[in-house]
Amino acid sequence: MAKVFRLDAGFQQYDWGKIGSSSAVAQFAAHSDPSVKIEEEKPYAELWMGTHHKVPSFKQDTKESLRDLIEADPVGMLGQGNIAKFGSTKELPFLFKVLSIEKVLSIQAHPDKALAKVLHFNDPANYPDDNHKPEMAVAVTDFEGFCGFKPLEEIADELQRIPEFRNVVGDEVAEVFIKNIKPDAEKDSAEDAENKKLLQQVFGKVMNASDELIVKNARGLIKRAHDSPADFNKADLPKLLIDLNEQFPDDVGLFCGGLLLNHCSLKAGEAIFLRAKDPHAYISGDIIECMAASDNVVRAGFTPKFKDVKNLVEMLTYTYDSVEKQKMTPEKFARSFGQGKSILFNPPIEEFAVLATTFQDGVGTRHFEGFQGPSIVITTKGNGYIKTGDLKLKAEPGFVFFIAPETEVDFFAEDTEFTTYRAFVEPN
């Protein structure tokens, strides 16, 4: 079995995806596989790279599934350490994606491992996996999203500034929240735990509000955004609410997302990490996303799909912090050398890390030592090659590759645009 080979990756056409050729997902899929003809009136939302049963990847030349290839040689394709650690002889522990976002995704969170097993057992139709789903997003273009709850003092300020928000939460819960939060509480202290309970009460009131109450106050909120933008404590919030309301009129997401969650903007190359049980939603842009191999979603708003309000309100961590603290700090990567630059996005979980390699300062070759586990690489810009031994494979936008454990490779850039993202897992 070759240690490096091209993959065909499947795509998903969800309603929120960018339309036709404007979607990076469509561009990548069609450039990688000439049989894919872009339908210009349809959305192209996600490119999936991995072994997940819903949209598996296939070896390009033989059309064998990556899952079957791993099952035929688990040690060679996963590494003994990863088999021992994650317990599978046929699946990657991560799922790698490209997302192209035109409209806001549902406000959502993902269960941790213990809850995922319970939800999958009780409701496999809505929760198809028994695994958790922490995830990381790296911006390929300018990106907007919601990530985690705002600092408590911001929420308290909004409850005093915006009558429609207070109407939905109710005077009693709003007053208790405003008077009793301790914004300077130390993490994991008794005061922090009490803050989280207060935040849960506010979020629970929003999520359990009647449709009639939400619609009435959503219309008032949008009128306020149009007529009195100075009433809001962030200058960008009125326009954001107006834009979201055009996509999902009179939706609870205006409150549980727009007023309770951080509005996050990333420039290309910046990243955020979202732990299991953290609420979030992507609003617009193109991203590279990596997550534990799961498709479990507990939804809250901006969606016509199933909303599991009870589980959502009970499961969230209710962590609250500034948006800047949600962003990841890239690390230098010591196990490569040569031309170009490689930076590591290494979240605090076991299933994956992502390595971004660019050649903005000049073309040439960058060498990588063998990793202790498998990796998947996608080229997002420019042209080059991936080489190992005598094998030399062309790498162009949308081309996806599998690299087996302990395989030394060279990335050769033909131009300074050449950009790759490499998701990998190692047992240590």
TrEMBL record:
Pathway the protein takes part in: Nucleotide-sugar biosynthesis; GDP-alpha-D-mannose biosynthesis; alpha-D-mannose 1-phosphate from D-fructose 6-phosphate: step 1/2
Keyword Zinc part of the UniProt annotation: yes
GO MF, any single term: zinc ion binding
Active-site residues from the entry: 299
Keywords noted in UniProt: Isomerase, Metal-binding, Zinc
Co-factor requirement: Zn(2+)
Name of the protein in its database record: Mannose-6-phosphate isomerase
Pfam families assigned: PMI_typeI_C, PMI_typeI_cat, PMI_typeI_hel
EC number from the UniProt entry: 5.3.1.8
Swiss-Prot/TrEMBL GO biological process terms: carbohydrate metabolic process; GDP-mannose biosynthetic process
Residues that, per the record, bind Zn(2+): 108, 110, 135, 280
Function of the protein: Involved in the synthesis of the GDP-mannose and dolichol-phosphate-mannose required for a number of critical mannosyl transfer reactions.
SUPFAM superfamilies reported for this sequence: RmlC-like cupins
Highest classification ranks of the organism: Eukaryota, Fungi, Dikarya, Ascomycota, Saccharomycotina
Phosphomannose isomerase type I catalytic domain residues: 4-152
Listed InterPro entries: Man6P_Isoase-1, Mannose-6-P_Isomerase, Pmannose_isomerase-type1_CS, PMI_typeI_C, PMI_typeI_cat, PMI_typeI_hel, RmlC-like_jellyroll, RmlC_Cupin_sf
Top enzyme class: isomerase
Phosphomannose isomerase type I helical insertion domain ranges (all copies): 169-261
Cofactor descriptive note: Binds 1 zinc ion per subunit.
PANTHER family tied to this protein: MANNOSE-6-PHOSPHATE ISOMERASE
One cellular component term from this protein's GO annotations in UniProt: cytosol
Family recorded in the similarity comment: Belongs to the mannose-6-phosphate isomerase type 1 family.
Annotated ranges, domain Phosphomannose isomerase type I C-terminal: 342-390
Catalytic activity: D-mannose 6-phosphate = D-fructose 6-phosphate
Xref: CDD domains: cupin_PMI_type_I_N
